[in-house]
Amino acid sequence: MLEAAIKNNCELPILPSKRYFTIGEVSELCEVKPHVLRYWEQEFPQLKPVKRRGNRRYYQRQDVMMVRQIRSLLYEEGFTIGGARQKLAGSEAKVDANHSQQVIRQMRQELEDLLELLRT
User: Fold this and answer.
1) Residue 3: predicted pLDDT
2) Distance, CA of 85 to CA of 43 (rounded, Å)
3) 17, 59 contact by CB (below 8 A)
4) 3-state secondary structure of 60
5) Which segments of the chain does DSSP mark as H helices, in order?
6) Entry pTM
7) Is residue 12 within 8 Å of residue 102, measured between CB atoms?
8) d(CA 64, CA 76)
9) Distance separating alpha carbons of residues 64 and 23, to the nearest angstrom
10) Where exactly are the structural domains of the chain?
11) Are the CB atoms for 26 and 37 separated by under 8 Å?
12) What is the pLDDT of residue 30?
């Protein structure tokens, strides 16, 4: 199950190395429409982007990874919203481990890309 989520999430665009992402950027990076992201914020307590002036949302890297996890549970694994919410709530330690693995894979890919760029 987790391998499938990681495999499908690896097919998504690589996250740029920046601290905050707008809802439009997260939408493109996770291949999910902005209105879906706003809905997921209501349904998943783990997803809490920072809101600044004008109620604009700014997602941090861990928020983007959570969106990718939710996307995987709903779209690839066939969970309902309620089932995905329970899965995330019941396995926070597992999600943390999975999140760490995803971050490590992401960083490794970015470093390999950088190394290739430096070699040319």
Assistant:
1) 44
2) 8
3) no
4) strand
5) 2-10, 23-30, 34-43, 61-71, 81-90, 92-119
6) 0.66
7) no
8) 17
9) 10
10) 2-119
11) yes
12) 93
φ, ψ at 56 (rounded to 5°): -75, 140
Question: Which CATH code for domain 2-119?
Answer: 1.10.1660.10
CA angle 38, 42, 46 (to 5 degrees): 100
pLDDT at 55: 86
Under a CB-based contact definition with an 8 Å cutoff, are residues 5 and 69 in contact?
Answer: yes
User: What pLDDT shows up at residue 92?
Assistant: 61
Phi, psi of 19 (to 5 degrees): -85, -40
For tokens 């499938």, name the residue: 4
Q: Could you report the average pLDDT of every consecutive run of 10 residues in the chain (120 residues)?
A: 47 84 94 95 92 90 92 93 88 64 85 90
Structure tokens at 55: 């109620």
